[in-house]
From TrEMBL:
The lineage of its organism: Bacteria, Bacillati, Bacillota, Bacilli, Bacillales. Coiled coil: none annotated. It comes from Paenibacillus anseongense. This is Glycosyltransferase. InterPro entries: Nucleotide-diphossugar_trans (IPR029044). It comes from the Bacteria. Pfam families: Glyco_tranf_2_4.
Amino acid sequence: MMQVHNEADRFLEDVLKDLSEFVDDIVIVDDASTDDTAKLCRSFPKVKKLVVLQESKFQREWELREYLWRFACSSEPDWLLSVDADEFYEDKAKTHMRELINQDRYDWVGFRFFDFWGGITHYRDDTLWGIHRRHTRTLVRYMPDYYYYNPPMDHHVPRLPLSYSALPGFLAELRVKHFGWAVSKEERYRKYLRYMERDPKGEWGSLDHYRSILDENPTLVEWKEELQ
């Protein structure tokens, strides 16, 4: 399950190629893109369901997440993998995916995410950039009768219902490459301005974290693929 907006000239094509290798179906909500994002999505056979919103919900992010969740659940899946249009699961993680879902001990899986910076060879690792030091829940079992809750937040909304935290989960030592910051300095600056515009008081996130986007010499670590 994925939400997209004007991703045609970024990482979306490679992400869809990658996902097509190990998922059964792909469900996408296009948040009123004005480029060829929808056309690109339709070109992949694994994209079984696609809806294009006529009016963007980007400024009401929790509504967009809620819409995507309900749209994906309408397919009555067994498990759902929440993926953004700039995320790539390491090969080792992909080989273990079936093993992770073919069990009855836990109902969600968390992975370690790495924020790549300025390119696809190094990830950022300093005080304010350490998402890889904790787990992010992205793979969940769907249970039709369970209570699902999404918090009404305008920014940095959890990608999956918070009520999953009450269920047994598994923290996998498997990695995901996030390329959202693996872009030019100019594009990172535009993202900084967008964050400050949407959350000027740091209500939904950390102002120090937003400002650190402008750091001239962040600590970067070379990425090394793990053997399967």
